[in-house]
């Protein structure tokens, strides 16, 4: 076990509590004072100032997100491990972070429960027409009609990872049939949390049988654009899409056309391309669409939970044990 101090840079503002959590991971942890401020979700931080670059040059460990990986690589010459603040790498992949020499870990799983709750809430809203009822309320319109029920419906989960698994548990509590794909699944594989586990190659079958298609995959070269017009054409006319993955997993034009023409019933979209969603986007005014500003995993206490996860990984790092959520450079997640 090592004895020398571990210089750590955190690229977002710390509270007294989160700082204490990180420092409590080991007496060897030394948090370097790094001048920073919060930025809008999805935005990249500007290149480091001379002062920030000087501090990054001392860092062995970096904890944060939305950093330009080229600038980080050039400045953080002693960096060995980058713990990102998000579950996915997103634009960092396009910026070449996987080609850098340091270990990368993510927050995968930290936001799984709130995101799964979002998916379930979206299915309830769409099934019960609550989004339309809210519009009726604003217009003082008494619009009685019958709605459906989730019981007996099929919940399709594209990507049985941490989020997908939490969603599966909740969907089954509503007596839904749950089918899911998993990249590593083989034909005949089973999983206790779902009624049917499918390999990724059987996505067409999941699309054809699901009443709700929940997209829970990470954004990788393999998943970018995986749902296009041909895939949407396989879905039931009464089916809906819930996307908490990334916007480009779905072909935007194909989705818009399907929603306009009634080819599918509806969608709940927490991710958009670009973000923020432009004011003139057709999605805003579509009566069969729920739009939220990429907040499915944003809950009170997230930074505290993230600090706890980072502290656990720091303890592993100090002890020379395998880190949690190490990104595979070939997979991209």
What can you see in these coordinates?
This protein has eleven helices and twelve strands. With 333 residues, it is an alpha/beta fold. Helix 1 (16-23) runs parallel beside helix 11 and helix 5 crosses helix 7. The longest helix has 18 residues, at 302-319. The mean pLDDT is 93. It has helices spanning 16-23, 50-56, 69-75, 91-94, 112-127, 130-138, 162-173, 203-209, 229-232, 252-261, 302-319; strands spanning 6-10, 29-32, 61-64, 81-84, 103-105, 154-158, 177-182, 196-199, 212-215, 240-243, 266-269, 289-291. Strands 8-7-6-9-10-11-12 form a seven-stranded parallel sheet, sandwiched between helices. Strands 2-1-3-4-5 form a five-stranded parallel sheet. Helix content is 31%, strand content 15%. It starts with 5 loop residues before the first strand and ends in a 14-residue tail after the last helix. The chain has two domains: 6-110 and 300-319, Rossmann fold (3-Layer(aba) Sandwich); 112-291, Rossmann fold, CATH 3.40.50.
Topology (elements, then pairings):
Blueprint: E1 6-10, H1 16-23, E2 29-32, H2 50-56, E3 61-64, H3 69-75, E4 81-84, H4 91-94, E5 103-105, H5 112-127, H6 130-138, E6 154-158, H7 162-173, E7 177-182, E8 196-199, H8 203-209, E9 212-215, H9 229-232, E10 240-243, H10 252-261, E11 266-269, E12 289-291, H11 302-319
Parallel strand pairs: 1-2, 1-3, 3-4, 4-5, 6-7, 6-9, 7-8, 9-10, 10-11, 11-12
Helix pairs in contact: 1-11, 5-7
